[in-house]
Amino acid sequence: MDFINHILDIIKFILFILPWCGTLWGAHQKLYSSSIRYFFFIKKIINRIKDTNWKLTAMYSVENNADFWNVLDDIISERFGNYRKSFNLHNKRQYEFKYYSLIVQYNLENSDSEFVKIELLFSNMNVTYKNALERLSELRKFFIALERKLMLDNNNIQYNFDIVFSDFANPFYGVLIQRLGPEHIEYFECVLNPDVLSDRRVINTNRKISVFKDKINICDSNFDNIEEIAKKCLLLEV
Question: How many CB atoms lie within 10 A of CB 147?
Fold first, then answer.
């Protein structure tokens, strides 16, 4: 008899909470589709267990007489310790250090001019939510050291940073098109004013944020700005 009463109590409890579950689920659906704060709150919880892929390039305009390769070698050694070069050509080298792989291309076509173009291409980086802030800080310190040693200003620098959401939906794309339904979108690109996600007010025509279906692209001549915006995109603190 006690067992039957116990079963009946469980059934009564289930019948009691079912309407509340339906009400809560309906409230969740409404808030998820109408409140940006709630949408990002849910996405932030989900994103804690997801990785992102980073693609980072830097373009520098360096004085032709600068001792670029020695400067770069010294800074990598100072900041990361041991490193190796997979190949070591006069105008192209690949560095392996810590968990980074970096290809550097030195444009010799303009070797007769006062400045030469140098491109730094980091290989695809898989970054967890947990270590994202550490990686951003580490990269910022590396770039600041390089800029100072080469005596560069913002007119000689351009950073291009992709945050790719490879195995889950880009939350910024989701909040922008959730009312339409992703199945109806073949291609998507939205260019945002960087002031939306940055506390820094900078007049720079090369500074922009682009939201695509699976990634966010940040372009800026100052990696401090890149770090600030990337933090807000990764932590969804908007």
Answer: 18
CB atoms within 10 A of CB 181: 8
- CA–CA gap between residue 15 and residue 137 (Å, rounded): 52
**Cβ atoms within 10 Å of 234's Cβ, excluding its own:** 20
> Distance (Å, rounded) from C-alpha 81 to C-alpha 115?
30
pLDDT digits (tens, 9 = 90+) for 18-46: 554 445 444 434 444 444 454 444 455 55
C-alpha of 31 from chain center:
27
**Best CA proximity match to 104, nearest among 69, 146, 67, 149:** 69
Whether 233 contacts 215, CB under 8 Å: no
Structure tokens that stand for 112 in this block: 């007769």
pTM across the whole model: 0.74
Type of residue at 69: W
Cα torsion 96, 144, 158, 237 to 10°: value is: 100
DSSP string, 37-66: HHHHHHHHHHHTT-EEEEEEEEEEEEETTS
Say if residue 37 is exposed, middle or buried (CB neighbours under 10 Å; 0-12, 13-18, 19+): exposed
